[in-house]
Amino acid sequence: MRAPATSANLGSGFDVFGAALERPADIVRVERAEETTIEMSGAGSEFIPEDPAKNTAGAVAEALDAPARIKIDKGVRPASGLGSSAASAAGAALALNELYDRGLSRSELVPIAAEGEALVSGEAHQDNVAPALLGGFTIVAEDGVTQVDSSVPLVVCLPDIVVSTRDARRVVPESTSVENMVDTVGRAATLTVGMHREDPAMVGRGMEDNVVTPARAKLIDGYDAVREAALDAGATGVTVSGAGPGVIAACYESDRSEIAGAMLDAFDDVDVDSRAYQTRIGDGPTVYR
Fold it and tell me: Where in the chain is the domain with CATH 3.30.70.890?
């Protein structure tokens, strides 16, 4: 099972918007067993507990009553803002659903995978697990998830900085002005239409946010310089990916390489190592049999 990285929030859609990324991704393998065991490898795996009671995939196995030997090769680094825990949870949910023939749809698996997310953030958020399972651009609401197929080009730059989801949530303002609320609604609507039209310019305008992003940006060394560099190189919009520290830029495909280089250079100028993914909004998980 190949489970994709995701980017949540996308600026104006805090706890609502999410997008599956073409790359990077986790590889999740499962086999039936009498009790669940977990084996981790790959990027940052040494920081992820293998105790099923403390692992997102283990929580999913329990929720599905599907004990298994679960092996996860991490392509999505933990504490990256790219849905690392969601990739593991979504991959395990889909794989175990098939292994045990539970017959649940991908939409029905979203709240189950979100139970794994609760181990990381303290709440069963669906903004990362929804796109990790459904692909494309997703909108999470109390009455369900709306999914839009899209393939808008993106650049994600991941600095060698750790920002935990819990820390990132602590800095979110508890209130805002009516003016900010109105602006955010307008931006979110613009982004949604942009995704439907696959219009990078509209998506970029819709990424602007005056409430959550400024607070989280302070946790990322060099964020302002990286954002400016990306915009100067042709990005149509730039924001914090999820809880950070990943920084995501919407763009036209012809500008991706130059934008990636500019973001890497800007982090380097503040003595922060980083890597860039030239990617796009992609499909959900791929099942290998």
Answer: 153-280
Beta carbons within 8 Å of 97's beta carbon, 6+ residues apart: 64, 66, 103, 104, 109
135 assigned ligand-binding residue: no
The secondary structure of residue 207, as a DSSP letter, is T
Q: How far apart are CA 94 and CA 91, in angstroms?
A: 5
Q: Known binder of ligand: residue 53?
A: no
Contacts of 192 (CB under 8 A, 6+ apart): 137, 139, 148, 206
Determine if residue 85 is labeled as part of a ligand binding site. yes
In CATH, the architecture of 2-148 is 2-Layer Sandwich (3.30)
**Six token digits for residue 136:** 């494309």
For the chain, list residues with pLDDT below 50.
Answer: none
CATH topology of domain 153-280: Alpha-Beta Plaits (3.30.70)
Q: Does residue 117 carry a catalytic annotation? A: yes
Residue among 228, 114, 214, 226 at smallest CA distance from 161? 226
| Residue 121 confidence (pLDDT) | 65
Instruction: Exactly one of 56, 138, 165, 236 is catalytic; name it.
Output: 165
In sequence order, which residues have a C-beta less than 8 Å from that of residue 178 and are 6 or more positions away?
none
Would the annotation count 88 as a binding residue? no
192 has catalytic annotation = no
Containing 93, the helix (H) or strand (E) segment is helix 84-99
121 labeled binding residue? no
Residue owning tokens 């209130």: 175
| pLDDT for res 57 | 95
